[in-house]
DNA sequence: AACCTCCGCAACCGCCAGAAA
DNA sequence: GTTTCTGGCGGTTGCGGAGGT
């Protein structure tokens, strides 16, 4: 492979767009593959991070609710810095987000609490059996990761794209995969490139999510309430991409 | 109005575990 | 059974914006 330098740093709008489409096409498992197919000069790792922390359609944005704060506090007291584990109890929140949040908010709060309340009644309580919050607030999530619960595959089929479903269902050999790479590069991916570069409004049947919304600092418009998120029986991937509204990227 | 400091967040790095060859 | 590869996780860093002086 030609040794082009691997890109690092902030993602561009175009990169997000490509990644979202490629993930929608091939799934969010084989990140090395996704990185190659997309033509992004990024590592699979980087692609995964971007998807998981930013592009995933199920992500919640905006401030943590009081309930979420409590939950984070309790679960952290229980599990420590197991951020991904904690994140699974807060659908729509990523480990990175919780980690950041903890650093900036919770630690401070916890310290304040420690000072105002006696230590024995503050954090230690949550690790005891008198901790109904976790069970009562997240009854069905115990065995399900966030992605299992509201993740990609389920919605993937909901898109009603047969070819895509087959791609997911089927177990791939490496031959299959490389065949797909060639096909994808020749057809769909190049179309994506072209569509994007032409700056046209694109109605891509496989479009994952409204990429342009990411840029405005909010994955989903929170004004309408968070009800727009986690609609298991509805299509979470609005099939639009209106570049004319896209804010500039950096 | 300009400068400085702090905060929030996106992204990277290194390590580890599990899967595949 | 061993080695290599890939993905996941936790820790850390750096940048940009907001707020304060």
From TrEMBL:
CDD domains hit by this protein: SANT
Region (Disordered): 109-142
Any single Gene Ontology cellular-component annotation: nucleus
Location of the protein in the cell: Nucleus
Gene Ontology MF annotations: DNA-binding transcription factor activity; sequence-specific DNA binding
InterPro entries, A to Z: EOBI/EOBII-like_plant, Homeodomain-like_sf, Myb_dom, SANT/Myb
Biased composition (Low complexity): 118-137
Domain HTH myb-type: 3-55, 56-110
Subcellular location, principal: nucleus
Keyword line: DNA-binding, Nucleus, Repeat, Transcription, Transcription regulation
Domain Myb-like: residue ranges: 3-55, 56-106
Gene3D superfamilies to which the protein is assigned, alphabetical: Homeodomain-like
SMART domains listed in its UniProt record: SANT
Chain's role: Transcription factor.
Designated name of the protein: Uncharacterized protein
